[in-house]
Amino acid sequence: QQAEIGLIGLGVMGSNLALNIAEKGNRIAVFNRTPSRTDEFLGEAGGLAGQIIGCHTIEEFVAAIRPPRPIIIMIKAGEAVDQQMAALLPHLAKNDIMIDAGNANFRDTVARFERLAGTDVTFIGMGVSGGEEGARHGPSIMVGGTEESWKRVEPVLTSIAAKFNDEPCVAWLGTDGAGHFVKTIHNGIEYADMQMIAEVYGILRDGLNMSATEIGEIFGQWNKGRLNSYLIEITEKVLKATDPETGRPMVDVIVDAAGQKGTGKWSAIEAQNLAVAASGIEAAVSGRVLSSLREERIAAEKLFGLPALAEAPKDKAAFIADLENALLAAKIAAYAQGFAVMSSASEEFNWSLPMPTIAKIWRAGCIIRSQFLDEITSAFTRDPDVANLVVTPAFAAMVKETDAALRRVVAHAALSGLPVPALSSALSYFDTYRRGRGTANLIQAQRDFFGAHGFDRLDGKDVHHGPWAGQF
Ligand code: NDP
After folding, report:
1. Is the CB of 354 under 6 A from ligand 1?
2. CA-based, 20 to 30 A from 316: which of 9, 33, 140, 280?
3. Are residues 158 and 200 in the same domain?
């Protein structure tokens, strides 16, 4: 009996996705570049092996799937995908669909979509979030492609997606690169969220001299409150874990240099391209870059020393409560920025990205899943075209309640020399966004002074240059 769907790439994500697909009652054919991995995978599949057809050649793989064939490609992003697509294309027939489920740059997805537009085969660019666990038991899935191709894959994707209150966390978000764009911004927000959590950890560790286990306890408490989320939950687990080699807290033996694969950087770049302020995401990407300069940082610490800590907060419990609220306030800024980037991209690329739906499908399955996203869903459902999440009634109330805590935390960190680039960027974002009279009047005057760029006057008079002719 032929399979209903095929999957190429039995790495971490592909093998788990294949098991998830098989478990939901779909017959699936699988193929991997290195054939021994296919055999190994069939061995790991246990009771699900009967639903899986392992193939060692592309010919065998294509023949094992019932036409018209949906084929998921879940391999290393970049050139590997183009190579795999080129190898696959000659074997495919009318109405077959290639689905790139890796972390593609959406610009590559748009190019691939256009390249296949002249052939019998359709292309879908699909963002999948949730890591290994999500892929196995229910990821959040962001789909871009034609509506017709989406309709064909909707049943199988719905069956494997995570569920939030019985609603599947999968949606068609628009044509060509829409799915991969949204996945990229998801990852950008994830970078910001992780950076802000790490900054708060730094204040507790280096400012209050707390142990990893004690800090883990605090995150555990926070996970019961408004910060309830997967990232806070795993932060508690990570902080409480012990290194089997040394018996010390696991985090205390891990090198403080963060890796990155590109999606955070792409979010920051696309935000800049669209002229949307995404300072939280940018701070997080720069934070990872600086973290990787470990040798330089160690040398600089020798050169400059560390600033003395500010006087310890008088009421430690109140300061810890401030940290919780500061994290919430900063998180609001990061999500507001991420959604603003998507809103602008939606116009720029003619996608009509559905904001409430995006928030909805991020509520479960993905790495940034949280209670908070349910509140974002409600806010965008009420007001889908709002300019900025922070001005929706529910979030405005939250900002008013928490921004003073963010200010105290950033001030304390600054006086103690503890780096908080993402938290402080959030504070500056709020402070800039809510000030009706800013300081760009001076920048406009300077631009006009040296470059005759012109300015608008508050009184609307039709005079656009200052009295500085001949002064430069
Ligand atoms: P792995 O490193 O575990 O697996 C990589 C897979 O890609 C292997 O099957 C490998 O085959 C295949 N591959 C590599 N190069 C080629 C090539 N030139 N031609 C054909 N196949 C190739 O990666 P992951 O499963 O972690 O990631 C897969 C994709 O999913 C990536 O785009 C990643 O960014 C994305 N992703 C990953 C997440 C994660 O948490 N890990 C989460 C969400 C998305 P072989 O066995 O022959 O080497």
Report:
1. no
2. 280
3. no
For residue 13, report the distance from its CA to the centre of ligand 1, in Å: 7
Asked whether the beta carbons of 428 and 439 are under 8 A apart, the reply is: no
CA dist., res. 345 & res. 322, Å (int):
35
User: Is 190 tagged catalytic?
Assistant: yes
Shared domain check, 212 and 168: no
Amino acid at the residue 140: S
pLDDT tens digits for 215-257?
Answer: 999 999 999 999 999 999 999 999 999 999 999 999 999 999 9
**Residues 149, 190 share a domain:** no
Ligand 1 atom closest to Cα of residue 131:
40
pLDDT bracket for residue 118 (50, 70, 90): confident
Token pair of 143, please?
Answer: 């789909």
pLDDT of 282 strictly over 90: yes
ipTM value: 0.98
The Å distance, Cα 9 to ligand 1 centre, comes to 6
